[in-house]
Design goal:
Layout: H1 3-26, H2 34-50, E1 74-76, E2 86-87, H3 90-103, E3 111-117, E4 120-127, E5 130-136, E6 142-144, H4 147-150, E7 167-175, H5 178-190, H6 199-207, H7 212-217, E8 221-228, H8 237-246, E9 256-258, H9 261-274, E10 282-289, H10 292-298, E11 308-312, E12 316-329, E13 335-346, E14 349-355, H11 359-365, E15 372-377, E16 384-388, H12 431-442, H13 454-462, H14 477-480, E17 484-489, E18 494-499, H15 502-514, H16 520-526, H17 534-544, H18 547-552, H19 555-559, H20 566-576, H21 579-591, E19 614-618, H22 626-635, E20 639-640, E21 650-653, H23 659-667, E22 671-673, H24 675-683
Parallel strand pairs: 2-11, 19-20, 19-21, 21-22
Antiparallel strand pairs: 1-6, 3-9, 3-10, 4-5, 4-7, 7-8, 10-11, 12-13, 12-15, 13-14, 15-16, 17-18
Bound molecules: nicotinamide-adenine-dinucleotide (NAD) and zinc ion (ZN).
GO cellular component, one term: cytosol
Cofactor: Mg(2+); Mn(2+)
EC number: 6.5.1.2
């Protein structure tokens, strides 16, 4: 390579790396895999060492990847938050070990192994046992102050108990637990929102949100893995971790001390498969020299410590041929393209299908039918197509033309500004949408007619007994008893006959009857108004009190409701402008389904004097019934719980209270108040 070529290539690589870094750290998105990204960096570093004259001072090989944003205050880190050297090869680890041995000049040493959690690094500062600040890594020198958002993470203690140093910093990884990630995505899919791409990017995007109530709903978690401070008195990293754990922080129990690099390799092999059973996505392991003095001796490079390194597991991938693409239509009409592949073995299972997300993704990959493609299985259950092997592309292949009509009903598809997915707008007659909406209506969180399985619903649709969820309320026992229908078995690839027995028919009729008592907010959620999830339905029901007021609400009055934005408001208005929807609601009304809030259930807020306070009520009272007392507490912002623990704030004690409760509360030092004292508190 001539110096000119090298200079040009260094420039190109730098631009490419900066582009992907910006996407990843600023916009919480990735267009290439971590492995491909890391390869770009390796290539750049190699060129820079061969042609040091072209190495820029601010080269991505020399600095930590992120930056700060304008939306938050920036905070300068007391101790810089660096990156970690990383490798995908065991030989590199052995080389790392040789460097450590050399640096420590014959001393013995041991390693502390941890998993590398795939989330966002956080630095937490505590003063006198109280959380003062939570800051992101940013550019390593300064980060974003996201304290308010971090406080919504339940496993980050706001106040520590017992003896802790007057001031210290603890670092860890905030992450989206896989289960929570799946829950949030299922909810998003259910109400027609685009899906979050992966837990790491979603965690990063979430922590940078301006509205911490949304952050709170996402239920992020955090594992701590680093303690810093002046004169803390610990000799090793493992002592630090034991201390951090004893102060009530969440430390993953997966760590292990190893006395040699062979032991480290064994740890790596041990976790290669097992890590998929953890509640969090991991992309490798981190090894740290355990002794803190030795860490000091080894020191840092510009970008990372010399006493630690991460080993990253390579996502398992395979190559196969893209045979065709099918388009699936969901409940809200959103269309998802799925790749049908020649069967290939990947991470122990045969893969035939892979997700393609949307039209942009197909375009980005420049996919063509007949292409040889790479498929990868990360932490996700559904594998994805990551790239095309262009060397094997057939000369006569043509770019894929995305469908313009619904594969299920032929209606022209639409795609709204700013949305990733195409939609079929034929909501009332497109079969998967009709079926999906009924399933949505009967789910447990909505009206809860759980004896009706998806197969039976298909049977009812096949027999033209229903065409939407309101029709369920006209079904009779005689119609259901002995009902015959066919279901398609994926396994056998053919239809089989089914029929309903009298017992199931009776159960279904009973469940439908019971569902008439379900409160309005759950019915409202069940209606399946796009973007109206469970929480939004609760807000709307509490505010408008009945379906008629909601149906008449103007755009202005909708957005005046807490947490209701433009998009939801437009969607609600559009829903009630549809004649068919009005007819459906009338049928529900005729059937006796709850379309207004139950007035006796409404608690009128009086004050917030009991905010964050918990109460246990015990015994008999003279001025209030127990229910009234409970309502009073709630109306003043408090919470009633059932059992006495250290965390309890007040025990409201009436007559004839059990002696054991009283004793427990006394020993735990809980405030015990009488009915009179309670009345005084709320009257003050
Ligand atoms: N796909 C893309 O487009 C793209 C773009 C930029 C960066 N990336 C990826 O992001 C990473 C960037 O590297 P980086 O500088 O952020 O460093 P890094 O993520 O490789 O390593 C440092 C980070 O590891 C995390 N970590 C997790 N568990 C830890 C533990 N037990 N102990 C210590 N740290 C732990 C911390 O957040 C720390 O900041 C690389 O993995 C890279 O592949 C991907
Ligand atoms: Zn359709």
């Amino acid at each position: 390579m001539t110096p000119d070529q090298a200079q040009e290539q260094i420039k190109q690589l730098t631009d490419q790396i900066n582009y992907h870094s910006d996407l990843y750290y600023q916009k919480s998105k990735s267009e290439i895999s971590d492995f491909d990204f890391d390869q770009l960096l390796v290539k750049l570093a190699a060129l820079e060492s061969e042609f040091p004259q072209f190495k820029a001072e601010d080269s991505p090989t020399q600095r930590v990847g992120g930056t700060i944003t304008k939306e938050f205050d920036s905070v300068i880190h007391k101790y810089p938050m660096l990156s970690l050297g990383n490798t995908y090869s065991e030989e590199d680890l052995i080389e790392f070990d040789n460097r450590v041995a050399k640096g420590l000049e014959g001393q013995t040493y041991e390693y502390f192994c941890e998993l590398k959690f795939d989330g966002v690094a956080l630095s937490l500062t505590y003063e006198d046992g109280v959380l003062k600040r939570a800051v992101t890594r940013g550019d390593g020198t300064q980060g974003d102050d996201i304290t308010t958002n971090a406080k919504t993470i339940r496993s980050i203690p706001l106040k520590l108990k017992g003896e802790v140093p007057a001031e210290f910093e603890v670092r860890g990884e905030a992450f989206f637990p896989i289960k929570e990630f799946q829950r949030v995505n299922a909810e998003r899919e259910d109400i027609g929102l685009d899906l979050l791409a992966n837990p790491r990017n979603a965690a990063s995007g979430t922590l940078k949100m301006q509205d911490s109530s949304v952050v709170s709903q996402r239920r992020l978690d955090c594992f701590l893995y680093y303690l810093l401070g002046e004169n803390l008195g610990y000799q090793t990293h493992s002592e630090c971790m034991a201390a951090v754990e004893s102060w009530g922080f969440n430390v993953s129990p997966t760590y292990s001390k190893r006395s040699s690099i062979q032991g480290v390799l064994a740890y790596i092999h041990e976790w290669e498969e097992k890590r998929h059973t953890l509640p969090v996505e991991t992309d490798g392991i981190v090894i740290k020299v355990n002794d803190l003095n030795q860490q000091d001796q080894l020191g840092f490079t510009a970008k990372s410590p010399r006493w630690a390194i991460s080993y990253k597991y390579k996502a398992e991938s395979a190559t196969t041929v893209l045979e065709s693409i099918t388009y699936q239509v969901g409940r809200t009409g959103s269309v998802t393209p799925v790749a049908n592949l020649s069967p290939v073995l990947l991470a122990g299972t045969t893969v035939k299908r892979a997700s393609l997300h949307n039209a942009d993704q197909i375009e980005r990959l420049d996919l063509r039918i007949g292409d040889t493609v790479f498929v990868e299985k990360g932490g996700e259950i559904i594998p994805k197509v990551t790239a095309v092997n262009l060397d094997l592309r057939k000369t006569d292949s043509e770019p894929i033309v995305y469908i313009t009509e619904c594969p299920e009903c032929g209606t022209p598809l639409v795609r709204q500004e700013g949305e990733a997915n195409h939609y079929c707008p034929n909501a009332d007659a497109c079969p998967p949408q009709v079926l999906g909406r009924i399933e949505h209506f009967i789910q447990r969180k909505a009206v809860d007619i759980d004896s009706l399985g998806p197969e039976t619903i298909r049977g009812l649709l096949q027999n033209n007994l229903i065409s939407n969820y309101a029709d369920l309320y006209s079904l009779t026992f005689d119609q259901l008893n002995g009902l015959e229908f066919r279901i398609f078995s994926d396994k056998k690839g053919e239809y089989t006959a089914r029929s309903l027995r009298d017992k199931s028919a009776g159960n279904i009729i009973k469940a439908i009857e019971v569902s008439k008592k379900v409160p309005f907010e759950r019915v409202l959620f069940g209606l399946g108004i796009r973007f109206v999830g469970k929480t939004v339905a609760e807000k709307l029901a509490a505010h408008f009190q009945n379906i008629d007021a909601l149906g008449l609400a103007s755009f202005e009055s909708l957005i005046a409701v807490d947490e209701i934005g433009d998009r939801i408001a437009h969607s609600v208005i559009a829903f009630f402008q549809n004649e068919e929807h009005i007819k459906t609601i009338e049928k529900l009304r005729q059937a006796g389904v709850q379309l207004k809030t139950d007035q006796s259930q409404i608690i009128v807020p009086e004050s917030n004097i009991f905010a964050d306070k918990t109460f246990v009520i015990s015994g008999v009272f003279t001025q209030f019934s127990r229910d009234e007392l409970q309502e009073k507490i709630k109306a003043n912002g408090g919470k009633v719980i059932s059992s006495i623990s250290k965390k309890l704030d007040y025990l409201v004690a009436g007559d004839k209270m059990g002696p054991s409760k009283l004793e427990k509360a006394t020993t735990l030092g809980i405030k015990i108040i009488s009915e009179e004292e309670f009345i005084q508190m709320i009257n003050n």
